[in-house]
Write a structure and sequence with these properties.
The structure is a single chain. By secondary structure, the chain is mostly helical. The protein is built from 7 helices and 2 strands. The protein has helices spanning 19-25, 27-30, 35-46, 52-80, 94-99, 125-148, 153-180, and strands at residues 197-198, 211-212. A two-stranded antiparallel ribbon has the order 1-2. Helix 3 runs antiparallel to helix 6 (125-148). The longest helix has 29 residues, at 52-80.
Length: 221
């Protein structure tokens, strides 16, 4: 069950409308590394998790991501302003200004609709957690790019908050992975000779015997 509270995680304001930048923010609403993708991925992954504590973690983070989605949508609303102006927008912004009447849409910054293909679900907790760690890392990169593309201090404050929350989620998923790292697909990690061989493929004419390497299951401190 989800309960809606009529407040945002963090205040959302802009110094002035900026419809061009609003299009860039669409990436974090309906893009491959955006907030909707994150929420749907963590909710979907939670369905088969047996560990009650980790299941709760997934659902709590997913609920927060929905809140982040609301923040991003509100930022886009404010950046779009209230006047439809065909001369103020380029071809890449045609969707929000003509098809959606300035509404934030479930699409990326190029106008492509959000798709469930963005979501990774394997049913293996280790694999899903590694995917989630990567997702949070990519979201951080996207917010860093967005931060550098805008001078609006109020928009930057919103992005800074969201970026730091992605870092918090990243660490939570790392901690969860450490807890279950010897289970599922990681249970037999590195137990055979094949898991400890390195093949030098750069110079086939000088091929050497495979070297044995020290393989350890990944852990995050």
């Amino acid at each position: 069950m989800f309960l809606y509270e009529k407040k945002l995680f963090h205040p959302v304001e802009v110094e002035r409308p900026n419809p061009q930048y609003a299009v860039l923010m669409q990436e974090q609403l309906g893009g491959a590394n955006g907030e909707l993708k994150a929420a749907m991925q963590y909710i979907s992954q939670s369905f088969r998790i047996k560990d009650k504590e980790i299941k709760e973690l997934f659902l709590n983070v997913a609920a927060e991501e929905l809140g982040h989605m609301e923040m991003v949508a509100q930022t886009i609303n404010l950046l779009n302003g209230h006047e439809l102006d065909s001369e103020a927008v380029g071809a890449g912004e045609i969707e929000t200004h003509t098809m959606l009447g300035l509404s934030p849409g479930l699409m990326n910054s190029s106008g492509y609709s959000w798709t469930a293909d963005y979501v990774t679900v394997t049913g293996d907790l280790c694999a899903d957690l590694l995917a989630d760690i990567a997702s949070e890392q990519r979201a951080k990169v996207m917010y860093e790019y967005l931060y550098r593309q805008i001078k609006d201090k109020k928009v930057r404050a919103t992005i800074d908050f969201l970026l730091n929350r992605e870092e918090a989620h990243n660490q939570l998923f790392r901690d969860a992975f450490n807890k279950v790292m010897d289970s599922g697909s990681n249970r037999d990690f590195g137990t055979t000779k094949a898991a400890r061989m390195y093949f030098n493929m750069t110079s086939p004419e000088k091929a050497e015997k495979p070297k044995e390497i020290n393989v350890k299951a990944p852990s995050f401190k």
